[in-house]
Amino acid sequence: MNRKNYTHPNPNPNYTSNNSMQSLHFIQALARINRAASKPTTPSCRTKQIRHAAYSSMAYTSGSRRKWSRALLIRLRQRQRLRARRLLTVRRRVRIVTPAMSLPEEPARAETLRRLVPGGRSMEYCNLLEEAADYVQCLRTQVQLMQSLVDAFSS
Amino acid sequence: MSSWRSRSRQSNTSRISDEQINDLVSKLQMLLPETRTRNNDRVSSAKVLQETCNYIKNLHREVDDLSERLAELLETTDMSSSQAAIIRSLFM
User: Fold this and answer.
1) DSSP type of residue B34
2) What is the ipTM of this complex?
3) How does residue B15 score in pLDDT terms, banded at 50, 70 and 90?
4) Each residue of A114-152: pLDDT tens digit?
5) Which one of A17, A38, A101, B17 has the largest count of C-beta atoms within 10 Å of its C-beta?
6) Host domain of residue B76
7) Residue B10 lies in a domain
8) Is the CB of residue A59 less than 8 Å from the CB of residue A25?
9) Is A6 contained in some domain?
10) Domain assignment of residue A45, given as a range
11) Using an 8 Å Cβ cutoff, are A126 and B25 in contact?
12) Count of domains for chain B
């Protein structure tokens, strides 16, 4: 395979190389799901596969640089392993309880944020804010990506 | 880190200044869709956290919805004709 390094002109200043990595990961995952379509799958099964691919591509793009992406990768792999062994039934949440590091001076809202950001339970408040910002940006990119795919497919 | 031992006797919050936390909170505020246009200091950090939580929940829901729509579309679409459109839309 011929590997070339080339940069194409970037008219959109908000578009970073991270975004295209994320797009590539996701597209490759979608292609894999599509190829495996020879086995009959229910629509809900496909939805779950695509959802898994979405969060995977988010986590892989940030890789080990971010606490939330590391936590998300661990969580995805756990679910995959449990599902393969048919231990993951619908609606059962396997929670690994770690004591939340919340200081008494923090606003109560931080508790919800800790639950929403992957790996948020064991973060210091300062890190939580930083990780949340990065997580939100990554999520937004993923949503934009999936929206443009839906638009492209339905035209 | 010679000052670590003496600092650890103080409360944990003195290690990270309020100014840093406010800075991070305002960065978070910039990402939110609604408060970005207002952009004033009157928005409290509690409000920013609440808006962030709502925003993240909304984004999670959108990912679920879009996954469902993509699942339907992947079944029915004809790949060869859409390929060029997809690649164009992704990298522009």
Assistant:
1) T
2) 0.74
3) low
4) 999 998 888 888 889 999 999 999 999 999 999 988 888
5) A101
6) 18-90
7) no
8) no
9) no
10) 17-98+107-154
11) no
12) 1
Chain B stretch 14-43, residues whose beta carbon is closer than 8 A to a beta carbon of chain A: 16, 20-21, 24-25, 27-28, 31
Q: Is residue A62 part of a domain?
A: yes
A21/B contact by beta carbon, under 8 A: no
Residues 6 or more apart in contact with residue A106 via CB below 8 angstroms: A125
Which pTM value belongs to this model?
0.74
Q: How many domains does chain A have?
A: 1
CB atoms within 10 A of CB B66: 21
Q: Judge whether B64 lies within some domain.
A: yes
DSSP string, A50-100: HHHHHHHHHHHHHTTSSHHHHHHHHHHHHHHHHHHTT---TT---------
Spatial separation of the C-alpha atoms in residues A13 and A11, rounded to whole Å: 6
The residue assigned the tokens 């599902």 is A83
In the block, residue with structure tokens 């309020």: B18
